[in-house]
Amino acid sequence: MLRSLVLLCSAAASAGFRPAVLIQPTRTHVARTTDVSMINLFGNNDESRKQREELSLRDARPGDRKVTFRKPNAATQGIQLGLKFTEDFGKAVYIDKIVEGTEAAKLKKEGKIKEGDEVTMVSATFGDEMWSARRIGKMRLEKSIAVRQGMTISFVFESKDQKAKQNNSARQKEIEKEKERMTRMQKQLLNEVEQEKKKGWSIFG
C-alpha cells in the first residue's frame, strides 16, 4: 500500500502536477474622502449671514449684471443657450465655454458675459422672480434651466474681479467696524479715568 502511494506521487510529480495554492484575498485600503464642511445657515458669523441674505433675494440687486436669454417654450439645457458650465469644489458654477453661433456668443461679443463668470442667480420656474444659484452645483442649475417656463430665462453673473472687489469691500467694512469699536472702548476708558480723577483717585496711581 505504501509502495503504491509512493509510485502515485512520483507519477504525479513527473506529469507536472502541482498542488493547488489557496490565494488569500488581499485587503484593499480605501482612502477616506474628506468631508466637505458645509456653511451653517443658522450660524452667527458673517459668512452665514451673507448666505441667508443671498438665499432670501428674489431679484437682482442694484449693480448686479443681469442677462436675459431667449429660449424655446420647452425644456431647455444650458448648451441650447450656448453655455457650458463647470463647478468648483465648493459647488460654485461658472461658464466654462461659450458655443459659437449661439445667443450666448452674441452676448459675449456685446460684453455681457464671458468665460469664467460665476452664475449667482437664475430665473424661477415661473414669472420674474429669481433664485440664488450660489453653490448649488452644475446639476441643480441645469434642472432650474430645464423647468423654466416661458420664452426667456435670466441669470446674474459675477466676474472674478467683481467678486474680489466685493470681498475687499466687505473686509474693509469689517476693518472700519473694528476701528469704531476700538474707538468706543478707548473713549469709554478715558471717560472712566476722568471720572476717577474727579473723585481724587487715579488707576495709574
Automatic annotation (TrEMBL):
Residues 171-183 have a biased composition (Basic and acidic residues). Residues 163-183 are annotated as: Disordered. InterPro entries: PDZ. Residues 66-123 form the PDZ domain. The keyword Transferase does not apply. Keywords: Signal. Residues 1-16 form the signal peptide. PROSITE patterns: PDZ. This is PDZ domain-containing protein. It comes from Chrysochromulina tobinii.
